[in-house]
Every structure is written in structure tokens, then in C-alpha cells.
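Example for tutorial group B:
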């Protein structure tokens, strides 16, 4: 009887916690902010969530050329800190022949649009083309935003005719995918083109096709390629090293080129969202989650923590995946991983078998402490967090993000 009473109390606490979170989330949305000045004024035009004019969101996102959509709200006070970056980016994007559109998602008329285009946190950047919107995962600074738009306005892949052009291409990008194919490899070339188009909105992945046998042979001799024909995915690591993966295009292979590229080209560290959680989950790898304070005052400390996490992630490529989660979106999930709330940065591991491992929050979060912790985990030297210390023993799943 006593056990059932405790279970009932825990259930009531979980329900109260969820209710409070819901009330808090709904309180952040202004009932109607149409008469308030927009938080973000940078950009080439201001779109509205409703209406049938050329500046309405339904019309804007159907652009055949594509537009960069900056999403904010008057209720998002820290969005103001991004204003200088957006203003500078708008000028650069205009020179490229692109367009930066802003939309203030306040009021009831915008709630449906938040869900339709997947807005989970503010500010957010989306690339919208022909009615489809893709989330931009890169840094929200002028150079990175301008480079992203330049990538979208170009063809999905380049053509290389020499080994020198291949070297320059691989050295210039964090992640590059080079297809060494002969003219007779028509089906493989079509798969490559389709993959390049499908993944064009990934800001960090660039594609090149090489159909010169001489260039391919030089790449194989220099050990930049494994064989001819093949696909090479090259990743330049923060430490200065290079990690290359190879996909041999053997007859009868059932490997999906786009899935192979997607899994191998993941950002070393990305922000955790409901949009990308399923992608990580499908990799069936342990996930390292760093919880960060999302306030503007903590931005420098958060940036340093992410840099330490990136160095750690480079060491565990293909063994683990790493993400960071904002306190605003996922702070309540810290306790489900055995962490005390409101202590940042904090780090924990979530595994496919439902076990959770929390790094001692008294330990300074550096690449060295993170590597030691993850090494111990992979060697089976860590004990998982006991369910008894978790307030609401619920696993993190895609449906809960």
C-alpha cells in the first residue's frame, strides 16, 4: 500500500510539473502583438502570418528562388542581441541577389505557422523555397548566414576536373562530398545528384562531382580516395586533422547514398531539437547532451562550452553523437538524466537501452573531463543513474521533445 502511495505521489508531481511547464510556455506568447513594434527590424521586408498580400507568409515561402526567413517575436527579449548580425547579413545577402525576410510570430494567427514550419525556439532561421522550409543549424552571424544563402543560390554541386581542384575543394569546406565517377556510371551519378539536391539545405556539406579518370587516379595515389569509382566524404576537424570516409559503389550495393552522407556528415555538435532528434535516434549511438544556459548573459560561457564539446566529439566520431540543449527548451529534462536543474553547463549521456549517465556537476566541463567521462562509459566503467533519484522516470523520446 505504501509503495502504491509513493507511485501516486510521484505521478501527481509529474502532472503538476507538466502543467506548470505548459502554463509557463503559453504565458510567453503575447495574445496579440500587432500594435507593438517588431523586435527585429533587419531584413528586406516584414512578412505577416495572415492575409493574402504578396508579403504574407503563405506567399513568401513559396518563392521559387528561395528566401532566408528570420523568425522572432516581441515576447523574445534576447532576440534583440542578434539584430546587428541580421542587419549586416541582410546587406550581404542583397548583394548576392537573395532576400532576407523577417516575421514576428506573435499573436494567435501565428500559432499554426509555428507548428507548420517547425519553430521550437527563438530566434530561428529557415530557408524556404517552393513552400518548404528547412531549419538552419549554423551560427547566426553575418558571415555564416551570407555563406549559407550563397550556397543555396548556387547549383547543388560543383564539377572538378583535376586533383588540384579536388584538394582546394576539400580544404575549403568543413565537410565535403566528392564523387569520383566515370561517364558510364549513369545511375550512380543520378543518385549523387539527387543526394546533393536533397542535402543542399545542410549548411556545412558541399558536393563535387569528378568524372576525370586522371584526377581520380591522382587522388587514389595520394590516398585522398580509396578506389575509382567511389564516394569520398572528407571532414576537416577542429584540431587540424582530417577524417575521410569512403563508399565503394559496388554493383548490387543497397546502401542509400543520401542516408550514408547524412550520417557521416552530421555536425560534430548540433543543437538538440525535435526536428533532428529522430535523425540522431536512427543512428543507434549513445548521445552526449550538454545543457546550456540560454540567456544572453551566458552566451560567452555557452560558446566556450560548445567549443570544448566539439573537440570531444571529434575524438569519438562514429562511436557517439553529441548535442547541446538550451535551458529554455529542455531545462526540465535535466532531472530525467540525473542532473540537478539550473547548473550550467552540465553534461549527461542518454543511451538506446534507456540508461542515463551524468557527469558530476562539481567537475569543470572541459574537453579533458568530457573525454575521460566518455572513455569510461565506452569501457563499461560507469554506473547508470538510478531511477530512484529521478523525479519523473521518463525516457527522453522524440515524441517528448
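The residue assignment follows.
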Amino acid at each position: 500500500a505504501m509503495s502504491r502511495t509513493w507511485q501516486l505521489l510521484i505521478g501527481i508531481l509529474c502532472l503538476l510539473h507538466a502543467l506548470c511547464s505548459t502554463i509557463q510556455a503559453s504565458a510567453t506568447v503575447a495574445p496579440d502583438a500587432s500594435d507593438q513594434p517588431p523586435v527585429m527590424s533587419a531584413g528586406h521586408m516584414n512578412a505577416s502570418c495572415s492575409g493574402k498580400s504578396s508579403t504574407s507568409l503563405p506567399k513568401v515561402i513559396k518563392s521559387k528562388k528561395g528566401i532566408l526567413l528570420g523568425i522572432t517575436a516581441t515576447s523574445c527579449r534576447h532576440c534583440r542581441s542578434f539584430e546587428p548580425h541580421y542587419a549586416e547579413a541582410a546587406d550581404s545577402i542583397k548583394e548576392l541577389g537573395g532576400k532576407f525576410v523577417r516575421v514576428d510570430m506573435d499573436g494567435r494567427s501565428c500559432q499554426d505557422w509555428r507548428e507548420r514550419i517547425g519553430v521550437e525556439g527563438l530566434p530561428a532561421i529557415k530557408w524556404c523555397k517552393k513552400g518548404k522550409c528547412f531549419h538552419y543549424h549554423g551560427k547566426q552571424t553575418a558571415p555564416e548566414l551570407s555563406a549559407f544563402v550563397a550556397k543555396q543560390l548556387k547549383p547543388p554541386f560543383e564539377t572538378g576536373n583535376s586533383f588540384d581542384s579536388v584538394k582546394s575543394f576539400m580544404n575549403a569546406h568543413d565537410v565535403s562530398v566528392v564523387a569520383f565517377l566515370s561517364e558510364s556510371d549513369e545511375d550512380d551519378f543520378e543518385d549523387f545528384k539527387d543526394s546533393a539536391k536533397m542535402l543542399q539545405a545542410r549548411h556545412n556539406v558541399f558536393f563535387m562531382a569528378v568524372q576525370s579518370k586522371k584526377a581520380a587516379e591522382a587522388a587514389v595515389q595520394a590516398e585522398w580516395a580509396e578506389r575509382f569509382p567511389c564516394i569520398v566524404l572528407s571532414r576537416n576537424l577542429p584540431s587540424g586533422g582530417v577524417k575521410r570516409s569512403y563508399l565503394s559503389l559496388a554493383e548490387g550495393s543497397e546502401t542509400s547514398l543520401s542516408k550514408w552522407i547524412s550520417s557521416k556528415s552530421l555536425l560534430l555538435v548540433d543543437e538538440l531539437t525535435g526536428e533532428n532528434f529522430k535523425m540522431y535516434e536512427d543512428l543507434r549511438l549513445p548521445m552526449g547532451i550538454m545543457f546550456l544556459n540560454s540567456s544572453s548573459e551566458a552566451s560567452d560561457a555557452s560558446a566556450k562550452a560548445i567549443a570544448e564539446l566539439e573537440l570531444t566529439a571529434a575524438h569519438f566520431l562514429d562511436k557517439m553523437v553529441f548535442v547541446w540543449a538550451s535551458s529554455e527548451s529542455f531545462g526540465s529534462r535535466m532531472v530525467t538524466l540525473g542532473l540537478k536543474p539550473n547548473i550550467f553547463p552540465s553534461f549527461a549521456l542518454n543511451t538506446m537501452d534507456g540508461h542515463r549517465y551524468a557527469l558530476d556537476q562539481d567537475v569543470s566541463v572541459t574537453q579533458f573531463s568530457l573525454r575521460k567521462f566518455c572513455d569510461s562509459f565506452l569501457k563499461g566503467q560507469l554506473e547508470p543513474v538510478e531511477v530512484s533519484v529521478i523525479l519523473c522516470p521518463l525516457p527522453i523520446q522524440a515524441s517528448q521533445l
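The first strand starts at residue 45 and ends at 47. Compare this with the pattern of hydrophobic and polar residues in the output above.
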